[in-house]
Write a structure and sequence with these properties.
binds magnesium ion, binds adenosine-5'-diphosphate, 4-stranded antiparallel sheet, 35% helix, 238 residues, ATP-binding, 10 strands, globular, ATP binding, alpha/beta, 6-stranded mixed sheet
Length: 238
């Protein structure tokens, strides 16, 4: 049985059906990328997995457990968005520790756990800095550390690199992938950038207008596009 199993998932906003009867599975430790043009439903699908968008029908199961109707904080999911949703008036340490303080962990346990993820994202020495004292890439690493510190069973990343300049973006791609592999963390990554998807993913789900039109390894999507849309989107006509 797959680690994540999504069955006949449907989401509407009023009259607008974003996706209907979507099915897919994800294995434990897999890095899956939802790739597709703007407006195709990537963020809505990710937010549905996170429990931030209640779905209209279907089932989301993780590790054999039906989480479809669980609250976001019960799901064991960590999430990072495009814009760094850090608390501006809190230090790096306090931003990362926030989730653990909510869980009422002991101070020494919090210090240990925060130090671990700070080392993981390579931000040693920045603990007492404030977000405005950091670069964009550093802020996204704080956001990543904050998502990781609660030891999520799934990591959801919604265009976390899109606001960064090209050089930092490339370095962070590698860093995210290295951390994900080290933790063997099941990850769903959203992007509209083919190159990002090609270089980072175990598997790509290519989406168009609310449908997964093809899923497979980066190589197979690129070399064996299922239709004209996939071929065009993967850059065969550029
Ligand atoms: P993507 O992330 O691929 O760019 P989205 O998931 O953001 O696409 O959007 C998919 C569709 O859902 C769009 O038609 C968008 O207008 C609609 N949508 C997304 N969020 C909302 C919302 N909160 N309320 C109403 N419609 C929404
Ligand atoms: Mg989006």
């Amino acid at each position: 049985m797959s680690y994540v199993s999504v069955t006949q998932l449907t989401k509407r906003f009023g009259e607008n059906t974003v996706f209907e009867d979507i099915d897919f599975t994800i294995e434990q430790g897999e890095f899956v990328t939802l790739l597709g043009p703007s407006g195709c439903g990537k963020s809505t699908l990710l937010r549905s997995l996170a429990g931030l968008n209640p779905v209209d029908s279907g089932v989301i199961a993780v590790d054999g457990e039906d989480i479809t109707h669980q609250a976001p904080q019960q799901r064991g999911i960590g999430m990072v968005f495009q814009s760094y949703a850090l608390f501006p008036n809190m230090t790096v340490f306090d931003n990362i520790a926030f989730g653990l303080k909510m869980k009422k962990l002991a101070a020494d346990q919090i210090a240990t756990d925060v130090a671990k993820v700070i080392a993981l994202v390579d931000l040693q020495g920045k603990e007492q800095h404030y977000p405005h004292q950091l670069s964009g890439g550093q802020r996204q690493r704080v956001a990543l550390a904050r998502a990781l510190v609660v030891r999520p069973r799934i990591l959801l990343l919604d265009e976390p690199l899109s606001a960064l300049d090209a050089k930092i973006r490339k370095r962070l791609r590698q860093q995210i992938r290295d951390i994900q592999k080290e933790l063997n963390l099941t990850t769903v990554f959203v992007t509209h950038d083919q190159e990002e998807a090609m270089t980072m993913s175990d598997r790509i789900f290519l989406m168009n207008k609310g449908e997964i039109v093809q899923q497979g390894s980066p190589e197979s999507i690129y070399t064996q596009p299922a239709n004209e849309f996939v071929a065009g989107f993967m850059g065969h006509y550029n």
